[in-house]
Amino acid sequence: MADAAAAEDAEQRAEEFASLEAIYGGDIDLQHDMGVAELHIPGRAAASPHAVARATCPAGYPSASAPVAELSGPQLPPGLAAEAAAQLEALFVPGEVVLFSWFEWVRDRLEAWLEGERRQREAREALAAVRLAGGGDGGSEGDGSGSGSGGEEEEEQGAEVASLAAAQQRGLRAPAADGDAALMASVAPRIVSGPPHTERRSTFQAHCCRVTEAREVGAVVAVLLQSSKIAGATHPAIMAYRIAVGPGVYAQDCDDDGEAAAGGRLLHLLQLARAENVVVVVSRWFGGVLLGPSRFALINNVARALLVEQGFIAGGGGGGEGGGKKKKGRGR
């Protein structure tokens, strides 16, 4: 009995490590024999110094024992390392894998802190420039601080406008070769769109389609982008797919479509729910209010709701048969 439990633990750890590698790519180091996963945050390619979130999985994980957390790096907010260790213990539920949830919690906290540091630094620089230009009187200081803060908001929203322009250009391009007219006509009747969900002026809408080969994925996206409404979204096609190609073997991939890491999170949702033979796409229309990390939960929530409705995954998070319901698409 103990040997069977140990074997099941080892299998679940291996599956979880494979999912983490698919999501994070070169930003994660995995030592399978030691049960160690190390995520570099915000990433190896980042210009700023990165932190390393390390989780060590004991032999009894995930059935009984929680992983051990470590957090290191040259720029860490005070107390975050201890808070991260406590968070991992709090997230752990015997029998359930937890590393992705913990890594995302750490990343969100670090990115929020780094963003706050950046804003403060830029505000100080703007204030110094105003003092230099205006002689440092109190009125100039107040004006400079307010102007710097407003400029930062405009800069971030300007990035969203640039993303919108890029998305619109992509939507106006001709479909790729794997999205030719015959294939697009074949997949179009199977595409289902969920209801739009609006949160703080941003709107999210999920679309899904049963697929059995990877070339159908491009055709599904091409059909969606024929809609001027979807093509005009800030991020029209955040996407992930998972296709069974043999017993326990899957063809799977994702696309962030300019929303960094969003596609990987969708793919992780498909993997955890053991969904198969499906592509899920989420379109986001930015409304001018920055949502921060909560946007990722909104993207996954609308995707999950549609996948549950269409029978690709069970309502409680279990695996689905991947059949999908026969239902006319909405909102294309």
Structural overview:
One of its GO terms (cellular component) is cytoplasm. Pfam families: Impact_N, RWD. Residues 131-165 are annotated as: Disordered. The chain has 332 residues and is an alpha+beta fold. The chain folds into 2 domains: 2-110, Ubiquitin Conjugating Enzyme; 176-309, Ribosomal Protein S5, domain 2 (2-Layer Sandwich). Helix content is 46%, strand content 19%. The chain contains 9 helices and 10 strands. It has helices spanning 2-24, 80-91, 99-134, 138-172, 181-187, 215-224, 228-231, 262-272, 294-309, and strands spanning 28-31, 36-41, 51-56, 68-72, 192-193, 197-199, 202-210, 235-246, 249-255, 278-285. The strands form 2 sheets. Strands 5, 6, 7, 8, 9 and 10 form a 6-stranded antiparallel sheet that branches. Helix 3 (99-134) packs across helix 4 (138-172) and helix 8 crosses helix 9 (294-309).
